[in-house]
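Help! Submission page says 'invalid entity' but I think these are all valid:
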Amino acid sequence: MNEDDRDRMKKLLQQALPPVDMDAEPTRDLWPAMLRRMDEEALAHPQAGINWAWFDGVLAVGLVLLIGSFPAAIPVILYYL
Amino acid sequence: MQSEPSNVLNLFREGDADAFESLFRHYQRSVYGWILRIVRDPAAAEDLTIESFWRIHRAHARFEPAQGFEGWARRIATHVALDWLRAKLRNSEVSAESCAELVAPLAADPAITAEIRSKTAQAFGRLPPKLRVAATLAVIEEQPQKDVAAALGISIAAVKVRLFRALRLLRNDLKRQGITP
């Protein structure tokens, strides 16, 4: 494809799909919709603000298992809390 | 467009909600216009502007104020628009004729009939989305290739390759329909 071909294709494309109006702008203020979107995401993922590391979960499960297996360890654990 | 003061950018990076609102209000028109050029559907462009700013909001900690906000926002918006085009193509809704009322007035070339224009638009809609975006921005909208490269996150050489492939595919598609550009 040479330069002339490219120019012809460009002209054809611009005739078929003219450039969008440079002054086009949204029909409404989008900020209220943005706020709604942020609220929806916050409700859908309420834990998003809490960053639980995976090892926090492992520690919690381990602690529950330890207490379940050795109830006598409870005073020791409480002492170190 | 006048850039935002660096303190607003720094505050946004730290997750400040007021700074985000300030940037949203300042750049929503520019981001909307950029997306509209790609998707050529005003209602979709509004939704995608919100989706872009949502991704911008989530990615605030990765923002580098020194690089400026508009280019970064444009890059995210381009990917949001590209995702939309891919989804639309999967749903077999070729969008080639969806922009009639929003285009700038252009004198019609009498040598190019309405049928040729229609077939060209349809063939363009069949191009792979990443080629279509490059061609839309660089050929139809006449954006500088360096801006297109920055928005797509690729090199200028890669933009040229995409343009070449897009125009060649388009020409071959039209030839199959008996149209010789």
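Support: the input was valid. A stray whitespace character was the problem, and the output above is from the cleaned input. Chain B touches chain A through 46 residues (CB under 8 Å).
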